[in-house]
Amino acid sequence: MEEEINELKGKRVPLKTLNIHKLDKNTNHHLFFKEKLRESCYKRVKEDRAKLLWKFRSPHQKSCAQQEFMKSAFKDIVSDELKKLKKQESNVPDVSKSLSGEDDMLWEYDGLHTADQEECEEILLEMQRIFYDDISLEENQREAEKFIVLDDEEDEYLASAIQEYMQLNDGKALKEQTWCPICKKGELQENIHFIYCNLCHFKLNRGDEVNMVLLRDRLAEANEEHLDRGCRCKPEFCVETIFDLTALYLRCQQCHTFEIVI
Length: 262
Description:
Blueprint: H1 2-11, H2 15-47, H3 49-56, H4 63-89, H5 93-98, H6 102-107, H7 117-169, E1 188-190, E2 194-197, E3 203-205, H8 212-228, E4 236-242, E5 245-252, E6 257-260
Antiparallel strand pairs: 1-2, 2-3, 4-5, 5-6
Helix pairs in contact: 2-4, 2-7, 7-8
Keywords: Metal-binding, Nucleus, Zinc, Zinc-finger
Main location: nucleus
InterPro entries: RIP, RPA_interact_C_dom, RPA_interact_central, RPA_interact_N_dom
């Protein structure tokens, strides 16, 4: 019997070894807890991105205030996610003990713990990177969509310009028809004094040299010159009286062109 007791004593694990195992267990959980906190914070930034972006782009936010706002918002997210994790694990006795004291000092953002300040800053920097990368991606997508719209508008404008050019120049095929540059629906007609539209108010004095053929040529040239400048916005035509001279003008809001046609 005495030999068995001695044998059991010989197999007893030293207290130092038990403490090391306990320390390793706490360390592993501590690292796991930190990693879980990181993942929760990064996920939260993506989920709250729309709300953060709306506040970030608020017209009342100045550039310097934006940076401070985002830093404060990210710290609030970390603090909130930390509370959630502690609440989730508070029902587990072994876990709740390991979350006391040390973690409160690590993740309390009223004053960063000196030893782990670098880790805390890493989380904040990564949260900022995720947020700003999403903004950059959104802007790139918006620019791509803008180019697609511009391409569609350019195709539409070119098709319209070609059609209008053909209408203005193909006199024989259209029996000398010339469409009104103002309303785009009426047909231009002429008499001894005026060139006018049969649908709208457009009326132009003929003078000695102005006639329908010259007007058609000038309209086609004005459209072509505007297109050659690289502007793809469809111009407008208007009749203006400047310095007692009434004339037909081409006007473009996009490239700010305003020039006389005839």
